[in-house]
Specification:
With 233 residues, the chain is of the alpha/beta class. The chain has five helices and 13 strands. A hairpin with a 2-residue loop joins strand 7 and strand 8. The chain is globular and about 45 Å long.
Protein backbone atom coordinates (compact mmCIF):
# COMPACT_ATOMS: atom_id res chain seq x y z
CA UNK A 1 0.00 0.00 0.00
CA UNK A 2 1.33 3.43 -0.94
CA UNK A 3 2.07 6.00 1.74
CA UNK A 4 -0.23 9.03 1.93
CA UNK A 5 1.17 12.18 0.37
CA UNK A 6 0.60 15.39 2.33
CA UNK A 7 1.28 18.27 0.00
CA UNK A 8 2.15 21.84 0.89
CA UNK A 9 2.06 24.57 -1.78
CA UNK A 10 3.71 27.81 -0.73
CA UNK A 11 6.15 30.61 -1.46
CA UNK A 12 9.71 29.48 -2.19
CA UNK A 13 11.86 28.70 0.86
CA UNK A 14 9.10 29.39 3.41
CA UNK A 15 8.40 26.75 6.06
CA UNK A 16 6.02 24.05 4.81
CA UNK A 17 2.70 23.36 6.50
CA UNK A 18 3.02 21.15 9.57
CA UNK A 19 2.99 17.45 8.78
CA UNK A 20 3.84 17.92 5.09
CA UNK A 21 6.04 15.39 3.33
CA UNK A 22 5.81 16.86 -0.19
CA UNK A 23 6.33 20.55 -1.03
CA UNK A 24 5.78 22.51 -4.24
CA UNK A 25 7.18 26.04 -4.56
CA UNK A 26 5.08 28.73 -6.23
CA UNK A 27 6.67 32.11 -6.82
CA UNK A 28 4.46 35.17 -7.11
CA UNK A 29 5.54 36.05 -10.65
CA UNK A 30 6.30 32.53 -11.89
CA UNK A 31 9.46 33.67 -13.67
CA UNK A 32 11.90 30.90 -14.59
CA UNK A 33 15.30 30.71 -12.87
CA UNK A 34 17.90 31.72 -15.50
CA UNK A 35 20.67 29.33 -16.48
CA UNK A 36 23.43 31.35 -14.82
CA UNK A 37 21.65 31.09 -11.46
CA UNK A 38 20.50 27.46 -11.72
CA UNK A 39 23.51 25.78 -10.07
CA UNK A 40 23.22 27.88 -6.92
CA UNK A 41 19.41 27.56 -6.94
CA UNK A 42 19.62 23.76 -7.08
CA UNK A 43 22.09 23.78 -4.18
CA UNK A 44 19.65 25.84 -2.10
CA UNK A 45 16.58 23.70 -2.87
CA UNK A 46 18.48 20.51 -1.99
CA UNK A 47 19.46 22.08 1.32
CA UNK A 48 15.80 23.07 1.96
CA UNK A 49 14.48 19.56 1.26
CA UNK A 50 17.05 18.00 3.58
CA UNK A 51 16.38 20.52 6.35
CA UNK A 52 12.60 19.92 6.34
CA UNK A 53 12.89 16.24 5.33
CA UNK A 54 10.41 16.60 2.47
CA UNK A 55 10.18 15.81 -1.19
CA UNK A 56 10.38 19.07 -3.11
CA UNK A 57 9.37 20.32 -6.55
CA UNK A 58 10.94 23.79 -6.81
CA UNK A 59 10.40 26.45 -9.46
CA UNK A 60 11.24 25.97 -13.14
CA UNK A 61 14.84 26.58 -14.13
CA UNK A 62 16.94 26.62 -17.28
CA UNK A 63 19.67 23.99 -17.62
CA UNK A 64 21.76 23.32 -20.73
CA UNK A 65 19.22 25.21 -22.82
CA UNK A 66 16.20 23.25 -21.56
CA UNK A 67 13.29 24.46 -19.41
CA UNK A 68 13.25 22.03 -16.47
CA UNK A 69 11.51 20.88 -13.32
CA UNK A 70 13.15 18.62 -10.77
CA UNK A 71 12.27 16.39 -7.82
CA UNK A 72 14.45 16.52 -4.69
CA UNK A 73 14.38 13.79 -2.02
CA UNK A 74 14.04 14.29 1.76
CA UNK A 75 17.76 13.53 2.02
CA UNK A 76 18.53 16.50 -0.21
CA UNK A 77 19.43 14.49 -3.31
CA UNK A 78 18.32 15.34 -6.83
CA UNK A 79 16.14 12.41 -7.95
CA UNK A 80 15.88 13.64 -11.51
CA UNK A 81 14.68 16.39 -13.81
CA UNK A 82 12.01 16.63 -16.48
CA UNK A 83 12.75 18.74 -19.54
CA UNK A 84 9.96 20.52 -21.40
CA UNK A 85 8.66 18.67 -24.45
CA UNK A 86 6.76 21.62 -25.90
CA UNK A 87 7.84 25.23 -26.19
CA UNK A 88 5.95 28.14 -24.70
CA UNK A 89 5.48 30.39 -27.74
CA UNK A 90 5.09 33.42 -25.44
CA UNK A 91 8.54 32.93 -23.92
CA UNK A 92 11.10 35.60 -24.73
CA UNK A 93 13.92 33.07 -24.85
CA UNK A 94 13.60 29.94 -26.99
CA UNK A 95 14.54 26.68 -25.32
CA UNK A 96 15.42 23.23 -26.60
CA UNK A 97 12.71 20.58 -26.74
CA UNK A 98 12.99 17.19 -25.07
CA UNK A 99 11.45 13.90 -26.23
CA UNK A 100 11.58 12.07 -22.89
CA UNK A 101 8.82 11.44 -20.34
CA UNK A 102 10.15 10.34 -16.93
CA UNK A 103 8.08 9.02 -14.02
CA UNK A 104 9.74 9.02 -10.60
CA UNK A 105 8.87 6.07 -8.35
CA UNK A 106 8.33 7.01 -4.69
CA UNK A 107 6.61 5.52 -1.67
CA UNK A 108 3.54 7.60 -2.65
CA UNK A 109 3.40 6.12 -6.15
CA UNK A 110 4.71 7.35 -9.49
CA UNK A 111 5.19 11.12 -9.87
CA UNK A 112 5.43 12.97 -13.18
CA UNK A 113 6.65 16.56 -13.42
CA UNK A 114 4.83 18.45 -16.16
CA UNK A 115 6.71 21.49 -17.43
CA UNK A 116 4.65 24.55 -18.28
CA UNK A 117 2.60 24.20 -21.50
CA UNK A 118 3.13 20.42 -21.74
CA UNK A 119 -0.08 20.12 -19.69
CA UNK A 120 -2.12 21.28 -22.73
CA UNK A 121 -0.88 18.35 -24.81
CA UNK A 122 -2.93 15.36 -23.57
CA UNK A 123 -0.58 12.76 -25.00
CA UNK A 124 2.13 13.79 -22.50
CA UNK A 125 -0.02 13.06 -19.42
CA UNK A 126 -1.38 9.91 -21.06
CA UNK A 127 2.10 8.51 -21.66
CA UNK A 128 3.10 9.36 -18.07
CA UNK A 129 -0.02 7.60 -16.72
CA UNK A 130 0.72 4.52 -18.82
CA UNK A 131 4.22 4.56 -17.32
CA UNK A 132 2.75 4.37 -13.81
CA UNK A 133 2.23 7.99 -12.74
CA UNK A 134 -0.34 8.49 -9.97
CA UNK A 135 0.45 12.17 -9.48
CA UNK A 136 1.17 14.94 -11.98
CA UNK A 137 2.77 18.13 -10.69
CA UNK A 138 2.59 20.97 -13.20
CA UNK A 139 4.39 24.31 -12.77
CA UNK A 140 3.44 27.06 -15.21
CA UNK A 141 4.05 30.68 -16.09
CA UNK A 142 1.23 32.64 -17.73
CA UNK A 143 1.76 36.10 -19.19
CA UNK A 144 -0.63 38.71 -17.84
CA UNK A 145 -3.89 38.70 -19.78
CA UNK A 146 -3.44 35.16 -21.08
CA UNK A 147 -5.22 33.33 -18.27
CA UNK A 148 -8.77 32.09 -18.86
CA UNK A 149 -10.79 29.62 -16.81
CA UNK A 150 -11.01 27.15 -19.69
CA UNK A 151 -7.23 26.70 -19.38
CA UNK A 152 -7.87 24.89 -16.09
CA UNK A 153 -10.41 22.52 -17.66
CA UNK A 154 -8.42 21.77 -20.81
CA UNK A 155 -5.19 21.41 -18.86
CA UNK A 156 -4.82 20.12 -15.32
CA UNK A 157 -8.49 19.09 -14.78
CA UNK A 158 -8.59 17.13 -18.02
CA UNK A 159 -5.34 15.33 -17.14
CA UNK A 160 -6.88 14.08 -13.87
CA UNK A 161 -10.15 12.95 -15.43
CA UNK A 162 -8.65 11.32 -18.51
CA UNK A 163 -5.97 9.37 -16.67
CA UNK A 164 -7.44 8.59 -13.22
CA UNK A 165 -4.75 10.35 -11.22
CA UNK A 166 -4.14 13.36 -8.97
CA UNK A 167 -3.08 16.50 -10.81
CA UNK A 168 -1.51 19.44 -8.97
CA UNK A 169 -1.02 22.79 -10.72
CA UNK A 170 0.81 25.88 -9.52
CA UNK A 171 1.31 29.07 -11.52
CA UNK A 172 1.43 32.84 -11.21
CA UNK A 173 -2.33 32.93 -12.02
CA UNK A 174 -3.85 30.04 -10.05
CA UNK A 175 -3.16 26.95 -7.96
CA UNK A 176 -5.42 23.92 -7.81
CA UNK A 177 -5.55 20.19 -7.09
CA UNK A 178 -7.68 17.92 -9.27
CA UNK A 179 -8.69 14.27 -9.05
CA UNK A 180 -11.12 11.93 -10.82
CA UNK A 181 -14.64 13.21 -10.16
CA UNK A 182 -15.82 10.01 -8.48
CA UNK A 183 -13.35 10.39 -5.60
CA UNK A 184 -13.93 14.11 -4.95
CA UNK A 185 -16.46 15.10 -2.27
CA UNK A 186 -18.32 17.55 -4.50
CA UNK A 187 -18.16 15.30 -7.60
CA UNK A 188 -16.66 18.16 -9.64
CA UNK A 189 -13.10 16.89 -10.01
CA UNK A 190 -11.56 19.45 -7.65
CA UNK A 191 -9.92 18.87 -4.28
CA UNK A 192 -8.80 22.49 -4.24
CA UNK A 193 -10.56 24.77 -6.72
CA UNK A 194 -8.45 27.39 -8.56
CA UNK A 195 -7.20 29.96 -6.07
CA UNK A 196 -4.26 32.26 -5.44
CA UNK A 197 -4.41 31.78 -1.69
CA UNK A 198 -1.41 30.12 -0.06
CA UNK A 199 -0.27 28.12 1.73
CA UNK A 200 -2.31 25.11 0.58
CA UNK A 201 -2.08 21.85 2.51
CA UNK A 202 -3.91 18.64 1.56
CA UNK A 203 -3.53 14.92 2.16
CA UNK A 204 -3.74 12.80 -1.00
CA UNK A 205 -4.15 9.03 -0.86
CA UNK A 206 -3.48 7.05 -4.04
CA UNK A 207 -5.36 3.91 -2.86
CA UNK A 208 -8.79 5.11 -4.18
CA UNK A 209 -7.21 5.39 -7.62
CA UNK A 210 -6.55 1.65 -7.64
CA UNK A 211 -10.29 0.95 -7.46
CA UNK A 212 -11.05 2.93 -10.61
CA UNK A 213 -11.34 1.22 -14.02
CA UNK A 214 -8.00 0.54 -15.61
CA UNK A 215 -6.98 2.87 -18.39
CA UNK A 216 -6.41 1.43 -21.81
CA UNK A 217 -2.84 1.38 -23.00
CA UNK A 218 -1.85 4.17 -25.34
CA UNK A 219 -3.13 3.07 -28.72
CA UNK A 220 -0.86 2.84 -31.74
CA UNK A 221 -3.17 5.27 -33.56
CA UNK A 222 -2.74 7.96 -30.88
CA UNK A 223 1.00 7.35 -30.76
CA UNK A 224 1.40 7.64 -34.52
CA UNK A 225 -0.76 10.79 -34.59
CA UNK A 226 1.52 12.56 -32.13
CA UNK A 227 4.82 10.87 -32.94
CA UNK A 228 6.13 13.84 -34.88
CA UNK A 229 5.29 16.28 -32.08
CA UNK A 230 6.90 14.12 -29.41
CA UNK A 231 10.05 13.52 -31.43
CA UNK A 232 10.27 17.11 -32.59
CA UNK A 233 10.24 16.25 -36.29
Amino acid sequence: MSKQLTISIGEPFTSPAWGSNFVVFSGENGVIIPEEDSKEYIRRVCKYAKHYEVYLVPERFMLMGYECLCLVSPSGEMLGAQRAIYMNTAAKEKSKRSTTVTVHNTEFGGIFLCVNVDIYHPEVARIAADMGARYIVCVQEMPRGDYATNMVVTGIWNAAQSNNLYAIAVSNQFHCICAPRVITQTDDGFIVRPTMKMPISKMLDSSPLEKLPHRRLLSRKIYMTHRGELLGV
